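Human: I would love a firmer grasp of how sequence relates to backbone shape in proteins. Could you go through the record with me and say what the backbone is doing? Here is the record:
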Amino acid sequence: MKFSALILFSILLNLIVLPTQSHAYVKTPESICTPVDFREIFPLKMRNQHEMAWCYAHSASDYLQFTYNIPEQISAADIAINYSRSKWSKFVTFVRNVFNRDLRNEPPQTGLIKYAIQMILPQGYCPESALPSEEWTRVTPDGQSSKIEILQASLDLFDLRDQVQKKKFTTAAELPWRYDFKNVNGQQFFDILKNSTRKNVLLKLRAQACTQSRKPFPANANISMQFRLKGPHVFTRLNSNFDDAKMPITIDFFSDVLRHLDNPKKNINNMHTVLVYGRKFNTETNECYYMIKDSYGEQCDKYDPKIECDDGYVWLPENKVYKSLFSDLMIQRY
């Protein structure tokens, strides 16, 4: 997550939940760190959040898809836009906008995966095919089309809405372009722009794009999230979830470790949510390694060269995970 202006939020978070001291932990022995690779059980398509700080929504989508064995990819955009209605999202957005005017025009970003999942479960999921989370397709009246990354697509949507509100364009036929969604035709797209505010245009677009395609989750779930992950048995819960529940787990951690493995910075600006999707023991380093599914595409050149990367799946040694770890989350369906 990227907002360098969240000074007040950073202070509050440090005072309330961030660990203030270091503790020794018990290394996971080889007898427990047996090979696990959930890709062999349930392959997931790699995601790319680009510049939009929706990592929590991408991880939530993957986790829900695995939990309920859903064959189609779940829309992270649906989860993120829905989460923007929460008091927590509104508070973070307010603080962000107070301290950085440059971000005032951007859509709500950052989030807590627990509340995002709790909010979407009763509604059901929207397929990625109905509301894409990485790029939107822009089409012009002459039939030309182009892919626009999600953050820029949202900003352009806001600007086009403003022009419609100022009556620069008064009919759907006058629009210079629109976004192409399966369940949103040209007139519906124009009506959304005409009858929305900047604060709710994404919510209205989400509703139109997803309502016809939304499907219920087949069961409910318990969601358990732990903060202040320090102490001797930090990885007991993770490994138990792997071995007993046969389930992955998500973590929030300081992601600078991915770029500077040996000397990462702990800063609220690089807090990141990922899905832990595998485990193996490295006999050369005598340490357990965990495989995380990142949400920045399949490229590996953005990571520290010492990190093993496999098309966007990254292996991190346990001690590096421990030093950067902030929270974890488990889902148990019932």
In short: Confidence is low (pLDDT under 50) at residues 1-22.
